[in-house]
Structures are given as C-alpha cells and as structure tokens.
Amino acid sequence: MRDIEEDIKILLAKPTETIEEHTKKVMEQCEKLKEYNYISKEIYDNLKLACKYHDYGKVNEEFQKRVTATKKILFNPELEPGHNLISPFFINKDEFEGRDEDYNKVFYAVLNHHSHVNNFQELEERKEFIKSFVSNYKLNKITNKKIFNMKKNINIEYEVLTGLLNKCDYSGSGNYSIEYENDFLIKSLNNLKFQWNELQEFLLNNKNENVMVVANTGMGKTEGGLLWIGDNKGFFILPLKTAINSIYLRVKDNILKENIEKRLGLLHSESFNFLLNNLKEFSYEDIRNYNKEGKALSMPITITTLDQIFNFIFLYPGYEMKLGTLSYSKIVLDEIQAYSPDLLAYIAIGLKKIVKAGGKFAILTATLPPFIRDYLMDELKEIGNIKYEKFIKGDDRHNIRVLDEEISPEIIYDHYMKKGKKTLVICNTVKKSQEMYVALKEMGIESLEIELLHSKFIRKDRMEKEKNILKFGDTTNKGNKIWISTSLVEASLDIDFDYLFTELNDLSGLFQRLGRVNRKGQKKEFLNEVNTYVFTKINKKLFINGNSGFIDEDIFNLSKKAISSAEGILSEEKKYYLIEKNLTSENIKDSNFNRTYREYKKYMESIWIGRFSKVETCKKFRNIISYKVIPLNIYEDNKVKIEEYIEIINDLKFSEEERVKAKDSLDQFTLQVGIYDMPKKSKVIRVNREEINILDGNYSFELGFQRKKQEEEKKQEEAVDNFL
Known about the structure:
The protein is of the alpha/beta class and 724 residues long. 44% of the residues lie in helices and 14% in strands. The protein folds into four domains: 4-174, Hypothetical protein af1432, CATH 1.10.3210; 211-391, Rossmann fold; 398-570, Rossmann fold (3-Layer(aba) Sandwich); 624-722, no CATH class. The chain has a seven-stranded parallel beta sheet with strand order 5-6-4-7-8-3-9, sandwiched between helices. A seven-stranded mixed beta sheet has the order 12-13-11-14-15-10-16, with helices on both faces.
C-alpha cells in the first residue's frame, strides 16, 4: 500500500505546486480567519481538518495525468471521479476523538467543495468506481447508511464550513489574502471629530444587536451604519449604483483616506469600470488586483448592491462561500423600502439565513412602511430580538402643496421665473422627464439653467451628469437651475435643493424625494412659502396590469389619500405617522405588491441546492430583461473609434490591459434599454462573447435616448423598464 502522507509531498495539486504545498497555503488562510477572530475555536478546528484533507483525492492517477500533461486534458466526470469524491475516504475519524457531528461536517465540506455532479448520489451509486482510482491506498469505510444519516442531519453549520473551506481554497489558489483585518474603522470615524447624534449613539451602543431603524434624511445614516459595523467585517448595501459610487468616494476620501486597497471595496456590475475611471493614482495592475479581491469579498468594508450579496439564497453551486463569509459579517441595508416585492422576499429569506449562520444586520431607512416591517418581523421572529427604534424628531423642512392634476411645466416655469434657486423636478418615467425638459426649454428656459438625468444616457454622458448634479446639489452650493430626473435620485443621494416639483408614486418614495430638498433643515426662509409641489394625477398605464406598468394602484391610492390631507408644513413626525397609519398590512393585503411578495417568498422556500446555475441566478435575481445598445447616431458619429476598440478587444495579440481599457472605452458609448425599446430587427455587433445592438432612435446629450416613433408600430408608451 502507498503512503498518502509521503505522496502528497511529491504529487501535484497544481502544475507547479505539490498537494502539500497547496494545502499549506490553504491552511495559512484558515489561520487568518482565526487571527482576526472571525471564527470560533470549534469552527477553526473543523476548518483546519477540512483544509488538510480537501485535496487528498488528487493523488489519483488520472488527476496526475491531467495536471502534468503538456496539452490540456479536460475533466470528464463520467470517466473519472472528481477529487472531492475521493478525498473523504482519507479522512481519519480518530482525529475527531468521538465528535461524530464534527466528523460529519468536515466530511460534508470536503465532499462538496466542488459541485461537478450530485456528490451524495455519486458517492452512493458509484462508490466502488470511486475507490478503484485509489485502491493502492488505505481507505476509510463509508457506508450508504452513514451517508443517509448524514444527509438527514445537514444544517446551516455544514454549509458554513463548506463555504469557509472554499474561501480558504480559492484565496490560497489565487494567491490573494482571504481577508484584511479591520483595525481602522472606529479610529477613522473618531478622527472626524464629530459629536455623534442620538441616531449614531444608538447604533454605536447597539453594535452587537440586530437593529431596524427609521431616521430622518440628513441624520448621518452612513456614519451611523459604519459605527455599528465598527472594527468588524461589514457590507453596506444600497439600492442604486449612483448612490453606491457616491458613498464609496465619500468613505474613501473623507473617512478612511489611506490604504484603501486593503480597507474598502466597491462591488456592483460596473465597479471595475468605475474604479478604472476614478482611481487615477493606481496602475492598471493595482486596480485589477484590487477589484479581484473585492469580488472575492476580501475587503473589510464593501459598498455594494443587493444582488452581489443576497444571490446566495438561490443555492447555486458554490453559494456556500458567500454564506460562509456572511457568517462573520455585519450587513447594513440602507433604504430597504426602495426594493420591489420580489427583492424584499429575497431580503427576508436571506437575513434569516445570515443570522442563523452567525452574521448580524442593521436596516437603516428614512421610511419603513408597516407592511414591510411586518414582512421582515414575520420571517425573522425565530431568530430572537430585533431592536426597533425611530428618530423622527427634527426641524421642519417641507411646506407642501398637493395638486390633483398631472405635473405641469407651466407651474414649474412660472415658479422658476419668479423665484429661481435650485429647483428639482422628479418624474415617474424617463419619457415624462424628457417631455418636461422639452416643454420648459420651449417656454424659454436657457440651456445653462436646465439639465436632465435619467438611466437612458450613454455611460460617459450619465457619469458627467451624475457628477454635475452632486456638485450642484451640494448643500453649500448656491445657484439657479432646474434639474429634472426620475426615481434615480430619490434614495441615498446626498443632494440638497431649494424647491421640489414631483409626481406621486407612493408615500415612501415621495418622502424619499422630499429628502432631496432642504435636506439639512437649515433653509428656514423656504418654510414661509411652499417649497414642495406634489402632483397626484398620473398616467393610468403606469399601474401594474399583467406584465405592464410598475406602480401598485392600491398603494398609490392609499398614498394619494394620505398626502392630500397633509398640505402645509409637513413635520418629520407627521411623515412617519402618515406612513404608519396608511401603509399597513391590513390596508395592502389585496394589493398586487403583497401578492407578488407572497408568491416569490413561497417559490424561494421550495428551491433546492443546485436548482439554478450562478448565471441563471444573476438573471433571476435582477428579474429585468435588458439589452446593451449604442444609439445609431452615436455609432455613426464615432464609428472609427468604435471599430478600433472592437478590433483591440477581439484580438488576443493585445495585452489584457489594452483589451480591458478598449472595452471600457467602448462601453462609454452604450446604455441599457428594456424590451419595449427594442425593435423587431436591429443591427448587432459582436464583441468577444457579447452582443451590442445598434438602435435606431434619437439620442442627444440633452435628452438621452428616445426610441424612434414608427407609424406602423404601436408600442406601449410606458412600461416597467422605463421608470429610472
């Protein structure tokens, strides 16, 4: 019989690394988790053994043929068992000293650290086939009864250990740090020399609790959330990339200031492009490695979107690594009311699993409808106490007028001509915002005094406009200008205008929009007159009806009734009680929103491990069919550059840096549109594995993209994909 301990010193795990060498690197990552106090002694002991045994199966002859071959030989699970199926036969049960449950956890983790096949089924049905590949070693006995009993007792601790093993394995293989220590955040916050307010003190004093907090806009929820995370691993989750990028830069430049590459991560679908364009002091290689470690969840603090973290609930192959990371993390969810019912169902299920795994959460929001609070409390009732607190006292900020009519460019024009100042107009759809812009321009508003922002600008134009609105909207900035936008600006964006004209969507969204006006409550002079105009008539096609529309009619009508009784000075306390009184579980029980939430929650509770691939998970989580396009006139005006970028991207003779930068340059001309904007036919260019449609329509820096009107085609004017 061969000696396994001797063979792992000479046989390979990687083309240039023995099994023993690789295992040592994986064990070093395990030690970091212990050093940073991220895992308990019990988990550490089990993880150490899982790391030790996870690649023993690579001693088999077929694996060694593949790893030493000069020409790549593909793995075929029909002809050769994965090494993860072989490794459990080497686990020495004596090392567990009678701790059968710990042995089972390690067995499970080692078996499932890869998912090429149904591992348990393969082990039960092809046991002799698997063993035949290492028949010249002493193997431990694994009976089908043992497998059956183990499967029956699997719990979240098994999943967490599997995830931690994968995290150690991936970082050891990828030669990056599994984690960086958070020994800086509290010190960095204290260096601000701020006097913490009651919200921030509450979060600081309850940093070991799961909390749910309602607090006025402008109270410093970002700093409060960071105080709650403290010197621990944390994720700060927001609904919109615009706000995420803004908060990332604020934390980077104003709070942490140094060693960002080991302290702060940015994670969303366009984060690499954003980092390339904003970290000018970093080399390409530095940004590449920084982004890689951010995607591997190695950063102590990560600012991110929901889909990057909560997609683990779909149980795709390898989901355990994310769950394992969250088991020692603190999660801040900002502006939870901004999410659709399907995403709220994912949040409720995800938070329950995170807390069971060992993580903690803080929900921080300016508005929290009672029915959403009930959704969460109902799902989380078995996890123990959740501290709920509200911070709704504060200076009055808004003097509102409610108009039972559609949003009016005439009213906005007359007001601006008399008052000027920083004026914000928020519409429910891109189309309506474009109409407002055109109407106000035609009435005589000069180009320098009006600007438009929504989701249908090409990337380079949108980035410029986002920077412009943040600069103009700064509290300290004075000026005269009308900015027109959509719900893109309503959540977590630190802008402060003097006057607001807005369509009604729902009460929570409305109060979020109000938070962009007199944000700090310091503009007392604006309270002597109306500073907020709410228009409560909207296009009925926006109400959800089958697959069209995006506004829940029941919630809209409740909101309209509530706000219509609230003209005049609207205090922070009154906002809170309007939501408490009107948006109750009882009042919305027959709404489309509630039905959708219940359907998604029931569906998610029925899925099983491996039901979806990771690619399918991404599509299902975002639940939006979108297409990357270049407007035809932009394509024609920049055809030479675009074709040059495509040539570089598709030609492997160029370096990775050159190809990535060409891809980023090409993406500056693109935008995402929904299915209703797509014609039956359009020109398609293929860039590597991606398709980009050249879309005939009207595009300008002023208005963004407008689809081409076709006499013969009757297209729905407003649709679910048209609201940002």
